[in-house]
Amino acid sequence: MKKQDKIAIVLGATGLTGSFLVKELLDDPRYAKVKLFSRSKIGFSHPKLEEHLGDVLDLKSFKTFFVADEVFCCIGTTKAKTPDKDLYHQIDCGIPVKAAQLCMENGITTFIVISALGANPKSKVFYNKTKGIMEEEVVKCKIKKTHILQPSLIGGRREEKRFGEWFAKQLLKIFNFAMIGPWQKYKTIHPAAIATTMAWLANNKYHKIYIESDEIKTINQDCKG
Hints:
Helices cover 39% and strands 16% of the residues.
């Protein structure tokens, strides 16, 4: 793998997928620095790591430091964690959109963001609608290399308890084996697969903006194969 001196920004680094992505980028010789913007420290140190602490809802206050080759956005919350719909929208939609706008303003040409399968700005489901609006606003920024990942339910262990999500995972464990053909994209997906795919997309040409869950898995498998 050719060594380069790229700088990556990761938002949502303390989350499940974000933590996998940070470790992957730190191990990648193509990256000289990985910048994190968050409210709290990630919990370990590394010579490539640069942390900026503050209110990510006011992301534009970081504009001076928001300089990189690529931005990866793994931001996401839940109804249980953020019951207030306005705050939920500010996090799940507002932060990624502000990040995309900063990319445009600071000349960053690669933006890769995690959305969700079923995202639709016209959906009657608040979660899907929020993700759909976010996608629309991100695309409007016209960043040269934009990829929007739409995973199904993300597997793996989280620090906080999410009973509804846990219950859904148990059901999917039962039905995953029966999901074939067009239903494959609804199978649970591991956060490491999403992280690997995000890193691959940043370093390779890929023509699609929207990438659904089954395609994320395919890219991940190709990376390993």
